[in-house]
Amino acid sequence: MQFQKVSLRRTGLFGTCNQRLHNIYNHLLNSNCKMSTSGQRFAAANDEAILEVRNKVGLITLNRPKALNVLSLNMINTIYPIMMEWDKDPNVQVIVMKGAGKKAFCAGGDVKSLVGNRPLSREFFPTEYRLNNLIAYDNWYEQDVIFLYAIVGILKTPYVAFIDGITMGGGIGLSVHGRYRVATERTLFAMPETALGLHPDVGGSYFLPRLEGNLGMYFALTGQRMKGRDVYFTGIATHYVGSQDINELESKLINQPSITNDVVQEILDQYHKKHEGGEFSFAQHMDKINECFKGETIEEIFTLLEKDGSEWAMKCLNHCRKMSPSSMKVTIRALQEGAKAPSLADALLTENRICQRMMETKDFYEGVRAILIDRDNNPKWDPATFKEVTDEMVDAHFQPTTDGDVILPKQ
Q1: DSSP label at 37?
Q2: Are strands 188-190 and 147-150 parallel, antiparallel or unpaired?
Q3: What is the dihedral sign for C-alpha 349, 353, 359, 365?
Q4: Structural domains present in the chain
Q5: 342-382 pLDDT tens trace
Q6: Is 162:97 a contact under the CB 8 Å cutoff?
Q7: What global pTM score does this model have?
Q8: Of the residues 109, 173, 223, 228, which is catalytic?
Q9: Active-site residue, selected from the candidate residues 170, 178, 223, 367
Q10: How far apart are CA 378 and CA 376, in angstroms?
Q11: Which residues contact 117 (CB under 8 A, 6 or more apart)?
């Protein structure tokens, strides 16, 4: 499907998509474009995102290092149209995304900005999901160890995400769906949304249930963190390299006379081979994860954890009980639905419904307050118990939004 045929049925948000894209792109050219020795350079307001063409590489730097490169609507609206233009430009043969600084690739979406700003949240999620869908690799691909799933997007230019540092929430959406995802020893990967009164979105409902066994449900409900080598062993990353090699790797791509998928693969493989080896640290718990997180409801999962009775199981159980009861139940249903979704675009449509509904409940605001603003880590969930969260409450999160659904291209 060509981009011109995409429609987003949201009142007043996009109008004619193709025309809006060109308007944004032209505005960036006129107001933010600077010429440098490296070629064209585009910057979002306050340089939150820097996009430049260096030789044949379209380089995107998420440039909010003091805020761990959290993703704002302004950044998304800068990145998306330029990536679309690069995808049509034969002189841009690979697109690379990285985070500024040494701490983070991207620590997630700027959810604090959504508190008390319902119009912004109505726009933020569908706009973010369009970018997630854009970078999705349009073929089957398989990681040697345990990861296999199909996603269909519209970006044809090879895309590389250097997930060097903290990569959570929205940062996962900028990486996991792309063709090449490069982790390092500094990578710290997690989807902690259930602790914020949210759910693992940005395509989490699609890729998580396609991990081996019940790993996806385990990560979704617990928000468990993973380091770089584990991110590779799950297949979430395609390569694992040393953080000290990232700049050299980037330079090698930039200095290529011509870049194809085979060239990108060969270069990444060369650096990956320097760091082969190691073990999947979750392997020792895989039997328990598969057994305890096979339950179809949170009550069943809790019963299985209690039945196991091990120290590991009790830690999981106590941790899960601290999460938003509503978020936990919605997350289980979302992953069950996502496992059956025929495409990433279909899963993102459902995720937007869920997020828009969550913006109308108390738990999101309470979670952000307790975890990110006041940081007392003592959220007062409403409903406060799992028993109080009815099936009807969960069902409401999966109904079409009053603004209309977000329709994304599937091929």
Answers
A1: T
A2: unpaired
A3: negative
A4: 13-396 (3.90.226.10)
A5: 999 999 999 999 999 999 999 999 999 999 999 999 999 99
A6: yes
A7: 0.86
A8: 109
A9: 170
A10: 5
A11: none
